[in-house]
Specification:
Aldolase_II/adducin_N_sf, 445 residues, 9-stranded mixed sheet, 7-stranded mixed sheet, Phosphomethylpyrimidine kinase, alpha/beta, UDP-N-acetylmuramoyl-L-alanine:D-glutamate ligase, L-fuculose-1-phosphate Aldolase, elongated, PM/HMP-P_kinase-1, single chain, phosphomethylpyrimidine kinase activity
């Protein structure tokens, strides 16, 4: 199997939050193989940089030559380049630096470029895309960058000063409700907006942004098309930034791949459950008049909405003669009662990934008690009027406020026009199948 290669030249972060390690993750997240050349080894954690060991220019040269004598490199991204000696080596060995992240100062305030003038003379003339934040743009443009108007002016100024084809001045450091990145290509200005996320775990944001962009450019995607895609991926990476260490945790560049793999597993789980249901002799005794459906989500900590929860399109149907048919296929995003109830539980508890609605019967209620589950009755008459469509979230709110934790089995005896129902949730599809097997055994004995 062949794969495009992208090279990161930068520092090694012992906390793996930024630098070459995160760059390689970012390359892989967009489908490109990541290569790495190290300019410095930092003693670093989520609290900051405690020390730096600089790689001598001769060994930096050996690393780069070793890469290029073997691999066909489709894109080069640079991050931390410390000394003028390192800059000289890079400028002599590499004709074009696809994306340059001008890492002038670390998040904790540590200065990372010893000689900014050498950086301007040797690195910037080789740069195809430059991705400074507002602070870095100030250092390069020579004036304060505190607004979108300043970003636009800085992008144009840096482009003109250093003849860089594409300049992206990022807006993460600008005080506003949204984050606006400004792209200038010498002719046109493009603004790409995103929501500002309240998550302190943002270490490595600039590094990952530049690497994702370089990876997409390696695949032949134009800068104007790649930037919005990178912004979308970065939004997800920041949203699920890692809560590790005692300080500022890193963003998670692989989260989109992780969520995709979880969705695939959910669909496989649903197929397994469908086979299980249709193989059970007495499953029909669980199905209410409105039929049943199973809701199954990706890992609870990654759930954002109904798009992360799958249900059966055609429900679980009781047919003549006690036969049961599962209405395949499973699909994400349908606003079924089971999906909305599971979503409410997950957002409240951050646990549980599987839920089914089954027929109300005191025998079934006792069966759940007998196999060890806590059972709770909810009086639907207490549901506020005019809350139609919010029943599922109301159930969760009502139980949480009046009983504390949510029991796995919640039932009601119905109200006028609404069938009585048992709702059962578990923390895995395996627990669901095992528990249903035990319940069916209980009601048969």
């Amino acid at each position: 199997m062949k794969k495009l290669n992208a090279l990161s030249i930068g520092g090694f972060d012992t906390g793996a939050g930024a630098g070459v390690e995160s760059d390689i993750k970012a390359f892989e997240s967009v489908g490109v193989h990541g290569l790495g050349v190290v300019t410095a080894i930092t003693a670093q954690n989520t609290l900051g940089i405690k020390g730096t060991l600089l790689i001598e220019p001769d060994f930096l040269k050996k690393q780069i030559e070793t890469i290029f004598t073997d691999f066909q490199v489709s894109a080069v991204k640079t991050g931390m380049i410390v000394s003028s000696g390192q800059m000289k080596v890079i400028s002599e060995l590499i004709d074009r630096l696809t994306v340059v992240d001008p890492v002038i100062v670390a998040k904790d305030g540590t200065r990372l470029i010893e000689d900014l003038d050498s950086f301007k003379k040797m690195i910037l003339p080789k740069t195809y895309v430059l991705t400074p934040n507002a602070v870095e743009a100030e250092a390069l443009a020579g004036f304060k960058v505190v607004s979108i108007e300043d970003q636009i002016r800085a992008a144009k100024s840096i482009h003109d000063l250093f003849s860089i084809p594409y300049v992206i001045v990022k807006g993460g450091h600008i005080q506003s409700d949204e984050v606006v990145d400004v792209l200038y290509n010498g002719k046109e200005t493009m603004l790409v907006r995103s929501h500002r996320l309240e998550n302190r775990n943002t270490h490595g944001t600039g590094s990952v942004f530049a690497s994702m962009l370089a990876g997409m450019l390696a695949k032949g995607i134009k800068v104007e098309e790649a930037l919005p895609a990178v912004k979308s991926r970065m939004e997800e990476s920041i949203k699920f930034g890692l809560e590790i260490g005692k300080g500022i945790g890193p963003v998670e560049p692989l989260v989109s791949l992780e969520r995709d793999s979880m969705r695939f597993k959910v669909l496989r789980d649903m197929e397994t459950f469908a086979d299980f249901v249709e193989s059970q002799d007495h499953f029909h005794v669980l199905i209410p008049e409105v039929q049943s459906n199973l809701a199954h989500s990706i890992s609870p900590e990654y759930v954002e909405g109904l798009e992360d929860i799958a249900t059966f399109k055609g429900r679980i149907i009781r047919e003549w003669g006690g036969r049961v048919r599962v209405g395949m296929p499973p699909s994400f995003g349908y606003p079924t009662h089971t999906a909305r109830l599971l979503l409410s539980i997950v957002l409240k508890e951050r646990k549980g990934d599987t839920l089914i609605n089954i027929r109300y019967d005191q025998k079934l209620v006792r069966a759940f008690k007998n196999i060890g589950y806590e059972v709770l009755e909810v009086d639907r008459e207490k549901e506020p009027k005019g809350e139609e469509g919010r029943t599922m979230s109301w159930i969760v709110e009502y139980v949480s406020q009046n009983h504390g934790k949510l029991p796995n089995v919640i039932f009601d005896t119905g109200i006028k026009g609404k069938e009585a129902m048992i709702r059962f949730w578990t923390e895995s599809i395996d627990e669901m199948m095992h528990s249903i097997s035990l319940v069916l055994k209980e009601v048969r004995t």
